[in-house]
Structure formats: structure tokens, C-alpha cells
Design goal:
heterodimer; A: 350 residues; alpha+beta; Gyrase A, domain 2; Elongation Factor Tu (Ef-tu), domain 3; 2 domains; seven-stranded mixed β-sheet; 7 helices; 22 strands; 36% strand; B: 127 residues; OB fold (Dihydrolipoamide Acetyltransferase, E2P); six-stranded antiparallel β-sheet; three-stranded antiparallel β-sheet; 3 helices; 17% helix
């Protein structure tokens, strides 16, 4: 067990690769109760979030979730969050555990819209993620009051889950697989965990720790705060242009800065696949010839893609797919190629 | 906890050291492989290299971590187990069979100063 933002979390249960493969081929169960939840309510909630966050909040419908960056005035990323429009003027913003206090302070201090309340509900909610090609059957069997299988991607609804009323079942996730994230009252986490494991037993469910959570998200090309996303880098540099609506009505905090930095920011996030057997790790230098062109932000051996893979901030010229670079792996040069991410897409491998 | 073979010696860095004729074969213990998890890569040492006791000789890498392997005693690297380049996971399967490299010690008696099985067990128990 390792301490993580006040939670004791296992790096692995039965073995990182086993857990990774179970999620890709059957179903994995993740305790993600460490994630924070901020409840945003009131007549001003939509406009407040529209201004605080980068994506098109005004287009969100009831029962729909959306990925967003929350930026500072310099265009850096305060956090990356998932916004759930529960109903009308009632939203849940799911934030990274390590940023919970920072995000809450940022939102309350920088909001300029009236008629809105922010409440830290992080202690009230537990969260389980059920991910993988067999997740839908497992979740459907445990859900009452909602057809989990009929939910579209990034849609959610209220339900009784594993006999526990007052849950939210969402078709969202971080692994690159189909799957669900279930928000439960925190006292219900343990019985719900046991119920999911039992329901998934016959399809080969595995409990999954932080280790495989990281290899799964990295293969799927998903950014992790503190690695690819920081207070200094813009969401455009991280390749999150698709959630960065610079021209949305009224703009958002940081949008002018991001637009201005577009031409001047010298580095961009790139995906690297290693040719040989050495494994890239965070912090390693990336070179073209003898010149350093950037640094690895996340690296591992992708259990499904079977290669050493990395995300790295590289100088723009070097970040073009097809470019050959080398990674300094503890003094040895490992050749790698810049590729179009992600490394893994459901049903295929890069 | 599986039993620790008493036909060999151990280091503080969780390597095992076993005599094979005039050379020593060196691998990592069951405890070490289980801490590292599934191994995916072994960086073998250069055969012919002369090393001092405690020198970094090579490394083994799992998905989650990399670990250095140290020379248990001074000597010359005389062999590297190239089969591991394609089958690093055999260290997980049979840690006490999967030797990583062989060393000809410059001072054979230096091996006697290493931990025996009971000493290594005691070290694990007190960790």
C-alpha cells in the first residue's frame, strides 16, 4: 500500500500485468474513492463553470458528462476535471485527489458569477470504476432503476447500485475501454466493492491497483495531472485542443493567455514508441543527435502494446510523428519514434 | 514465504550467489522478484569486465520499477545469461534457477563473508 492524497492505495493486488490484461480482455474493478467531488449549484452554476472551465459547458445536457481543463490566468492547467450535469443548475465536478483543496480554493476565489454555491463533497462520495469489454454485463446486473447498457458514452443516471440507493452510474472511464464509474455514498464502498467482485467472478474480474491504472491510461494516451498537465503548461500543448474552446461565448479564465501563447510555446506533448527493450521513465532526457529536445513525462512498458512507450514534451520540430529521437535511459541511448497517439485504441493496438 | 535454498549465499541487495565449479552464478531472490513484479527486461553485463564488490553490474526492470544488480564480490564477469533477453519473466517463474551472470571471484574466500540462508531469512524477517 502507498499513501496517496490521504488514501492508502495498493499499487497492485495480484500483479500489475495480470490486472492490466484483465481490464483489456474482461473487466477490472478500481477503487477510485480518492477522487474529489465539488458540487456546484444555483442559478449561476452554468455561467460560473463556463467561465472557470475550458470546454463548452453551456452545451452539456442533463445526464451528460464532459472533460474539461481548469486553467489559471497564464493558461496553465490548475486541474483536469470531469463535469457531470446532474440536472439543470446542479453539477458535480470530479477533480483529482491531489488537487482537491487547490481546486476548491481556485473555484471559490476566482468565480465572479453570482447565485452559485460550491461545496466540497469529497468525503460524501466513494467511487468505483468498472472497466473493460465485459463491464457492461456486470454493471447492468447490479443496477436498478436504469439500463446501464443503454447509456451512451459520457452519459449517466441515478440508480440503485448493488442494493444501495442514491448512486450515480456513468459510462465514463480512464482506461481506454468501455466501462462505468459509479458514485456511491462513501459508507457503501465496501459492500459495493464485494458485490461487484462477486458479480464479475464468472467473467474473470480482477481488482486493479494504481500500477495498472497508470499503464492502462498511458496506453490509451490519457494525460495524468502532475505529469503531462501542470500549472505551467497549457491544455493546447498537452494536445487537449478538443476540450479547449477558445472562442466560446465569454471565453474562460486563461483563454486569452492560451491564444497568445499558441505561437510562442516551444514544446508540445508527443507520443514515443521505443524500438529496443529498454523502458522509458519519467524525467528522462529526449535527444535528436546530441541536442536535448525535451523530457519524458510518463513512461512504461505497455503490457498490451508490448513496447516501451512514453509521453514527452518535445520541441515542436521534434514532436512531428515520424521523427526519430533517442531517449537517455540511465546513460544508454534508446532509439524511439514519435507516433500519432494514442498507443492503444479499443479493438486495435498501435 | 517460500523457503530459501541453503545451497548458496546471499547479499544485502537480495542477490543470490551460487558456486558452479570455479565460478559464481548470480541471480535475484524470490523476495526480490516478488517485490519488483513481472520482469520485462534484463540489461545484461559485459562479459570480460572486471568489477569490484558492490559495483553496479546490470539491471532488471519490471513494468513498475528498475532495480540494479550489484557484484557480490570482486572478480571478472565470465558469462551472461542471454536467454533472459527474451525471457525475463523466467526470473519470476524460477528465481533460484534463473542466473543472470557468472563471475570468477578474484578472492574465492570473499564469498564466505556473504549471508547464508538463515542470515538472509533473518534479514527479511527484520526488514
Amino acid at each position: 500500500m502507498v499513501p496517496f492524497a490521504g488514501f492508502e492505495m495498493p499499487v497492485q493486488y495480484t500483479g500489475l500485468v495480470k490486472e492490466h490484461v484483465a481490464t483489456r480482455t474482461a473487466v477490472g474493478l478500481f477503487d477510485v474513492s480518492h477522487m474529489g467531488e465539488v458540487r456546484v449549484r444555483g442559478a449561476g452554476a452554468r455561467m460560473a463553470l463556463q467561465r472557470l472551465l475550458s470546454n463548452a459547458i453551456l452545451r452539456l445536457q442533463d445526464g451528460q458528462a464532459q472533460y474539461n481543463a481548469m486553467c489559471n490566468h497564464q493558461g496553465g492547467v490548475v486541474d483536469d476535471v470531469f463535469v457531470y450535469r446532474v440536472a439543470g443548475d446542479d453539477f458535480v465536478v470530479c477533480v483529482n485527489a491531489a488537487n482537491r483543496d487547490k481546486d476548491f480554493a481556485w473555484m471559490t476565489e476566482n468565480n465572479t458569477v453570482g447565485d452559485v454555491t460550491f461545496e466540497d463533497e469529497g468525503d460524501a462520495w466513494a467511487q468505483l470504476a468498472v472497466q473493460g469489454p465485459r463491464a457492461v454485463g456486470v454493471v447492468e446486473a447490479l443496477t436498478e432503476g436504469l439500463s446501464a447498457g443503454a447509456l451512451g458514452r459520457h452519459r449517466f443516471g441515478h440508480a440503485t447500485f448493488a442494493g444501495i440507493p442514491g448512486c450515480i452510474v456513468a459510462r465514463t472511464g480512464y482506461t481506454g475501454e468501455d466501462g462505468f464509474e459509479v458514485f456511491l455514498p462513501s459508507h457503501a464502498a465496501a459492500p459495493a466493492w464485494a458485490a461487484v467482485l462477486e458479480a464479475g467472478e464468472e467473467v474473470g474480474i480482477a481488482p486493479v491497483g494504481l500500477g495498472a491504472r497508470d499503464t492502462l491510461r498511458l496506453e490509451a494516451g490519457n494525460c495524468l495531472y502532475g505529469h503531462e498537465l501542470t500549472d505551467e503548461t497549457t491544455p493546447l500543448q498537452a494536445g487537449l485542443g478538443w476540450i479547449t474552446k477558445l472562442r466560446k461565448p465569454g471565453g474562460f479564465i486563461g483563454s486569452d493567455a492560451i491564444a497568445a501563447r499558441r505561437q510562442t510555446d516551444s514544446q508540445k506533448l508527443a507520443a514515443l514508441v521505443v524500438r529496443g527493450k529498454r523502458i522509458p521513465r519519467e524525467g528522462m532526457d529526449v535527444l535528436v543527435g546530441d541536442a536535448s529536445v525535451g523530457r519524458v513525462t510518463s513512461g512504461t512498458k505497455g503490457p498490451t502494446v508490448g513496447r516501451g512507450i512514453a509521453l514527452a514534451y518535445l520541441d515542436r520540430d521534434a514532436s512531428v510523428p515520424g521523427t526519430e529521437v533517442t531517449i537517455d535511459v540511465r546513460g544508454r541511448r534508446e532509439v524511439a519514434e514519435v507516433v500519432e497517439g494514442p498507443f492503444y485504441r479499443r479493438g486495435t493496438t498501435a | 514465504m517460500s523457503s530459501i535454498p541453503d545451497d548458496r549465499r546471499y547479499t544485502d541487495h537480495d542477490e543470490w550467489v551460487k558456486w558452479d565449479g570455479e565460478v559464481l552464478r548470480i541471480g535475484i531472490t524470490d523476495h526480490a522478484q516478488s517485490e519488483l513484479g513481472e520482469l520485462v527486461h534484463v540489461e545484461l553485463p559485459e562479459v570480460g569486465e572486471t568489477v569490484g564488490a558492490g559495483d553496479e553490474v546490470c539491471e532488471v526492470e519490471s513494468v513498475k520499477a528498475v532495480a540494479q544488480i550489484y557484484a557480490p564480490v570482486a572478480g571478472e564477469i565470465v558469462e551472461a545469461n542471454e536467454a533472459l533477453e527474451d525471457e525475463a519473466e523466467s526470473i519470476n517463474d524460477k528465481p533460484y534457477d534463473a542466473w543472470i551472470f557468472a563471475l570468477r571471484p578474484s578472492e574465492p574466500s570473499s564469498v564466505d563473508a556473504l549471508l547464508d540462508a538463515a542470515g538472509y531469512q533473518a534479514r527479511l524477517d527484520n526488514a
